[in-house]
Amino acid sequence: MDQKIKIFDTTLRDGEQVPGCQLHGKEKLVIAKALDNLGVDIIEGGFPVSSPADFEAVKAIAQNMQNASVCGLTRAVQKDIDVAVEAIKPAKKPRIHTGLGTSDLHVFTKLRTTKEEVIERGVAAVKYAKKFVEDVEFYAEDAGRTDNEYLARVVEAMIKAGATVINIPDTTGYCLPAEFGAKIKYLKENVKGIHKVDIAAHCHNDLGLATANAIAAVQNGATQVECTINGIGERAGNTSLEEVVMIINKRTDLPYYTDINTRLLTAMSQMVAERMNMPVQANKAIVGSNAFAHSSGIHQDGVIKHRQNYEIIDPAEVGADGSQIVLTARSGHAALKYRLEKLGVSLNKADLDKVYNDFLEVADRTGLVEDKDLKELVAGYAMIDLD
Ligand code: KIV
Ligand code: ZN
């Protein structure tokens, strides 16, 4: 049987840390409801101790989610946990997400403590959170740059303290996929009690590897992926939810599934882009405006003959409008004929050749040839009856 991969969405926490992306509570709630409807398993609503508004936003999310667990982030500090517990209390499925840094850099230069003290503080935080909620996730910040032997000791101590989920973040996006996958494998093979918990991959995109690293983690035993819509997040962003979901969906040779309703992905992406003021790059995988657009003559000819020549996803599967045959100076006769026929215009071959020459002249001048230009180009030509 295929393994379910839980989708932990942190658009409203890690995603919202992006400058200019901050949301008012009501907007967070609108996005959270859409995420719940999309089918995510866990929604990280925010960092409740960070501000009164974020506390209220997480609380409102906790009150309103139908299916998803609601999670609040904390440092490994009692005050943070107290505040987060209050915020997530109304949730049907509340979760506390607590932790601290484990790499030498974090231990010695950020926390300015010892490795033993980090384990003690983590254990104390997990035990404290467990007094209030059953579901406690521990994050080992900068696990990507933490040596595996020490990381295994940390993870084992947190499981013993009661953690239900162990989050392995590649906080700085430094790892290579094989290396990150090997880290998860090492933990699976060397930590007592690891089979009782979910292992989460939380990857950042500093080297453009966040999605690849998350998938490598899954292939080595991670059962939860932490991600954001459109991949937004600190610096170069987080693992993109739509990419992970569609990799698992399309690669049926992988023995995994998610509960995401893929047909809602495009609308979800647009909602987040608009409300968080963060436009999606045109060539973004799955949800970019060019993700299903074909503009070179060779590709257009292939797609018109058989869509799958150049598309591995049917746009309808992700709720996109459809494949687009875009007319530019790189387009060929097949594309021009196709677009004219969409307008109800069919020409004989000689006329099509003549119109194509005029079309190229317009395309070189304007860059993109629109329907209104096409209508002008064919005015005066005899049409063949399309019926
Ligand atoms: O990237 C990271 O390490 C985080 C943790 C707080 C989970 O966002
Ligand atoms: Zn992060």
Main traits of this protein?
387 residues; alpha/beta; TIM Barrel; 2 domains; eight-stranded parallel beta barrel; two-stranded parallel sheet; 12 strands; 43% helix; binds 3-methyl-2-oxobutanoic acid; binds zinc ion
Summarize the model shown.
The protein is α/β, with parallel strands linked by helices and 387 residues long. 43% of the residues lie in helices and 14% in strands.
Question: What can you tell me about this protein's structure?
Answer:
By secondary structure, the chain is an alpha/beta fold. The chain folds into 2 domains: 3-275, TIM Barrel, CATH 3.20.20; 293-377, no CATH class. Helix content is 43%, strand content 14%. The protein has helices at residues 25-38, 52-64, 78-88, 104-110, 115-130, 148-161, 177-190, 210-219, 241-250, 265-275, 297-305, 333-342, 349-366, 371-378, and strands spanning 3-4, 6-9, 42-46, 69-73, 94-101, 135-141, 165-170, 198-203, 224-227, 256-257, 293-294, 324-325. The strands form 3 sheets. An 8-stranded parallel β-barrel has the order 2-3-4-5-6-7-8-9, surrounded by 8 helices. Helix 1 runs parallel beside helix 2, helix 5 packs parallel to helix 6 and helix 6 crosses helix 7. Bound molecules: 3-methyl-2-oxobutanoic acid (KIV) and zinc ion.
